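Retro notes (design track)

What went well: tokenization of the new backbones is finally stable.
What didn't: we kept losing track of which sequence belonged to which structure.
Fix going forward: every design gets posted as structure first, then sequence, in one message. First example under the new rule, 390 residues:
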């Protein structure tokens, strides 16, 4: 259904990524589906094994890629598919696609949107696959390259206002922060748990599993709570992001004798994740603050929506978006403090006090949900749509 009237043609939109999965929560479930429901013709060029249409979105496959080098090798094919699609708007999501964005802006008549998901300057310093001597150089150089190329694009989307600030300070004007809040109108929590609880208390984490996302810190926290005499389990909902981290994790849980108290579930479809979260007692977002200094973890709002108290590492964005009556902030590597905070929350829940969880649900329903951000996305797209197009 068209949001505007008197228009006969449909705006053709192509999303582009070599780094994300085809059914990525932000790209597919939120942005692409919102655009499709608003009347846009939407496709997604991404690594996948089949050319298919899912929920109105056409997936244009690049084939499977199991390694970073394979993803990079597919960039020329991604550009070819994108250019030949003759789209009205190209929306790309990865920093390695900046040259593709420039080429599309130069050699097609389509508008180009660059979607900045992360604060890459900080992330580069934490990337183990980048040789150590190169990390400071790339961290210094990439923001300058990004700013130079951004002027070629018609719009820039950032996942937070903090990520927009350095770009705005350098003179970039066409920036729209669109926060990655939960898609609450599509979430239906099942009354039946997808997994049986085997402990008095359950901590849960959703997202990619790696060291900088608190993977090993959560194991230390679990061990500390059990040493306090609490019967606690840890649910990890998401895939391991490297074989090395998975192997180290397996060694650590055995060494700390908590392997019988940890459940890993791998990748779970976005709308099914909430069935797992709703069965837990505390949601964890103990993330490396140096890597997440200008971002806000979406998982915080997902926990809040299912009435979970949140325990998160402290950053400026987290301090602003996590009200004190919805959870607690803790130092990233201070296991003792984390144990004290989580034990206190579990004790209060055991005594029937669940006000913290109810507060979180209310905040998400009123302020921190995708319906608000969706309107910002659609307003941007309407402003870029050519006369006579959707």
């Amino acid at each position: 259904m068209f949001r505007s009237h008197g228009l006969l043609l449909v705006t053709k939109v192509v999303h582009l990524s070599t780094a994300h999965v085809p059914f990525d929560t932000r790209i597919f479930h939120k942005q692409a589906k919102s655009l499709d429901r608003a009347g846009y013709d939407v496709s997604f060029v991404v690594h996948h094994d089949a050319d298919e249409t899912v929920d109105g979105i056409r997936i244009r496959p690049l084939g499977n890629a199991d390694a970073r080098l394979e993803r990079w090798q597919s960039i020329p094919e991604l550009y070819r598919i994108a250019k030949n699609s003759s789209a009205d708007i190209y929306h790309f999501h990865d920093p390695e696609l900046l040259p593709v964005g420039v080429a599309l802006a130069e050699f097609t008549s389509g508008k180009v949107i660059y979607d900045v998901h992360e604060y890459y300057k900080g992330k580069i310093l934490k990337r183990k696959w980048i040789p150590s001597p190169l990390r400071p150089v790339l961290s210094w150089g990439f923001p300058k390259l990004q700013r130079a190329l951004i002027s070629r694009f018609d719009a820039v989307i950032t996942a937070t206002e903090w990520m927009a600030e350095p770009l705005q300070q350098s003179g970039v004007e066409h920036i729209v922060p669109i926060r990655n809040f939960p898609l609450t109108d599509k979430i239906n929590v099942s009354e039946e748990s997808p997994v049986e609880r085997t402990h008095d208390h359950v901590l849960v984490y959703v997202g990619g599993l790696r060291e900088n996302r608190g993977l090993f810190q959560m194991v230390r926290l679990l061990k500390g709570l059990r040493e306090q005499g609490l019967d606690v389990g840890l649910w990890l909902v998401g895939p391991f992001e490297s074989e090395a981290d998975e192997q180290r994790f397996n060694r650590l849980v055995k060494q700390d004798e908590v392997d019988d108290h940890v459940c890993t579930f791998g990748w779970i479809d976005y709308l099914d994740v909430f069935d797992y979260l709703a069965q837990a007692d505390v949601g964890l977002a103990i993330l490396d603050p140096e890597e997440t200094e200008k971002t806000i973890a979406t998982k915080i709002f997902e926990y809040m929506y299912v009435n979970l108290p949140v325990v998160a590492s402290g950053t400026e964005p987290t301090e602003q978006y996590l009200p004190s009556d919805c959870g607690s902030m803790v130092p990233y590597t201070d296991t003792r403090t984390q144990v004290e905070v989580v034990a206190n929350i579990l004790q209060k829940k055991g005594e029937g006090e669940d006000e913290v969880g109810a507060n979180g649900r209310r905040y998400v329903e009123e302020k921190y949900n995708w319906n608000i951000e969706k309107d910002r996305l659609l307003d941007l797209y309407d402003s870029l749509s050519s006369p006579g197009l959707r």
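Added context from the reviewer: The chain has two domains: 12-181+369-384, 185-366.
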